[in-house]
């Protein structure tokens, strides 16, 4: 005789085969997941702090350079706004003249491009003898 009825113990084992996880195991897995999430978030925050510290250091360098540039430009501004500098610039580059002066601007001749420059001829004299040199040293000719 065959019976299809199985004992109660074997039925409960069949049912538990698919869900073989206990509550402490679930809590442990959740704890590991939460711990990993916290560690990853902590690592992300550390990296963000390091990036911000590097940017702050770079900005300090830029501020120092800009402060030096500002100081140099301030001193240059003080120099160029002085009356002496303005007068020198006006006279040399601005071509302004004082009331007692006359501005002269040289112009090239119209035929200057067609003419060749004339070489200056050096006066050729005969070399002096030693006697003549000593005579000039002691008695000088006044030239």
Descriptive overview:
With 143 residues, the chain is mainly alpha-helical. It contains four helices and no strands. It has a domain at 22-100. It has helices at residues 8-16, 23-80, 83-92, 130-139. The radius of gyration is 51 Å and the shape is elongated. The protein starts with 7 loop residues before the first helix and ends with a helix. The model has no long low-confidence stretch (mean pLDDT 81).
What's the quick description here?
By secondary structure, the protein is mainly α.
Unreliable runs: none
- The portion of residues forming beta strands comes to under 5%
Count, helices: 4
Q: Main β-sheet: number of strands, strand sense, barrel status?
A: none
Which tags fit this structure?
143 residues, mainly alpha
What is the secondary structure topology, with strand pairs?
Layout: H1 8-16, H2 23-80, H3 83-92, H4 130-139
